[in-house]
Amino acid sequence: MQGVLLDVGGVFVVPSRDRLVEALGDLIRTVSDAACERAHFEGIHALDVANVPGDGDRQIYLHGYLSSLRIAEQELETAIDRLTPVWMGPSPDLWRHVLSGSVAGLRTLYDAGLRLGVVSNSDGHVEGELARIKICQVGPGRGVPVRTIIDSTVVGVAKPDPAIFDFALPALALEPSDVIYVGDSVKYDIRSAQAAGMTPLHFDPLNLCEHTDHLHIAQVGDVLHHV
Question: Is the pTM of this model over 0.90?
């Protein structure tokens, strides 16, 4: 493998605890950043297990997310209603907690000489946000240099449609079989990467996924064990 494409949400950033406290107040005021990190992966796992099409994804994710935070069952519906507009708002307002070790892991991949890029389902803000919080940018800058950053809203194609990768692969100048894709969702990341002919690596730091048809990693730097 010579190239690595990576997702953003759930690989580099997860929802910010501070934004959640603004929306939910005392329901989660004592919850830690670590618990909020865990809640994201519990929510994604719930979504992957349910594997239903359409707009139900957000509700399933939020139910799993809030259940992880020990929100009482009788309060879940109200909490989901209060969080839904937050999840539908601009991504920079929510997805701003950087996961420990992910940026250092990306730097390790760059130093190893791998051709790097980003492919994310986002709302048009992902390239600017990655540069602002010093994760990565195309070419030299304050973050790790990558060759391309693809935002689904910008290109008009979103995962799980594997066609989104057609916008990234030319920048790597590699065939899909020479590229790894790292993402946190089976439904959106693993299945689309498989359909595109790439090797998927499931970013699953809590070891929640029970699928055996793909490999799992706990840190971005672990990609090096699979190249």
Answer: yes
Mean pLDDT in residue range 125-144: 95
CA count, 13 A, side-chain hemisphere, 18: 7
Please count the other Cβ atoms lying within 10 Å of the Cβ belonging to residue 152.
Answer: 19
The 8-class DSSP code of residue 204 comes to: -
Question: Which pairs with CB-CB distance under 8 Å and at least 24 residues apart come from 90-93?
Answer: 90/123, 90/125, 91/9, 91/122, 91/123, 91/125, 91/126, 91/129, 92/125, 92/128, 92/129, 92/132, 93/19
Name residue 118's beta-bridge partners: 6, 149
Beta bridge partners of 180: 4, 199
pLDDT of residue 54: 63
Prior bond of 160 cis (ω within 30°): yes
